Amino acid sequence: MKALLASLLAIPPVLAVGITATISQGVEFSAGQWVALAGLMWLGSLPFAALGLALGFALPPQLTQPVSMLGVFGLAFLGGLFVPVEVMPKALAAIAVWLPSNRFAELGWSVAGEHAPPAAGIAVLAAWTLLFGGLAALSYRRAAAQR
pTM for the full model? Predict the structure, then answer.
């Protein structure tokens, strides 16, 4: 029930971002593209939600936020969100395409380019979701056992 409520609460900010993009940047998507973008962004956020749960269960409360922020910024940088993958050194570029941050951004790029997201990108996101979900479950079990 809490997850459904959280998902519903996320709708207004997503709408606000869409309206802002349309007004200030001239973004022109069809209604279908907006729906696809919202749905793909929601699904693409699953590995990051699972990572947050894993960190929340594994770390003391005072460390969870700083470690989460470092992780998010690290994934964003290495995933090519601050520097395009095309201009990264070859070793970093090879790593970037395997990170969930890069593949998450790819979902949005595919909607903007009016094509389906690549199956490889979906597979990478699914793998990270399973990995982080498994870590979250393990962390939860450990935290529950310590109580």
Answer: 0.83
Q: Which of 113, 142, 123, 140 is nearest to 44 (CA)?
A: 123
Q: In the structure encoding, which two tokens stand for residue 142, read together? A: 């450990």
7 — pLDDT class (breaks 50, 70, 90): low
C-alpha dihedral (141, 132, 56, 2), degrees to nearest 10: -90
pLDDT tier at 18, thresholds 50, 70, 90: confident
Q: Which two tokens stand for residue 73?
A: 């910024």
Nearest alpha carbon to residue 117 among 101, 133, 105: 105
| Nearest Cα residue to 14 out of 101, 97, 115, 6 | 6
**If you ran DSSP here, which 8-state letter would residue 10 be given?**
T
The answer for residues whose C-beta is within 8 angstroms of residue 78's C-beta and 6 or more apart is 92, 95, 96, 99, 101
DSSP string, 77-124: HHTTSSS-GGGS-HHHHHHHTTSHHHHHHHHHHHHHTTSPPPHHHHHH
Report the chain's C-alpha Rg in angstroms.
17
Contacts of 111 (CB under 8 A, 6+ apart): 29, 33, 36, 37, 40
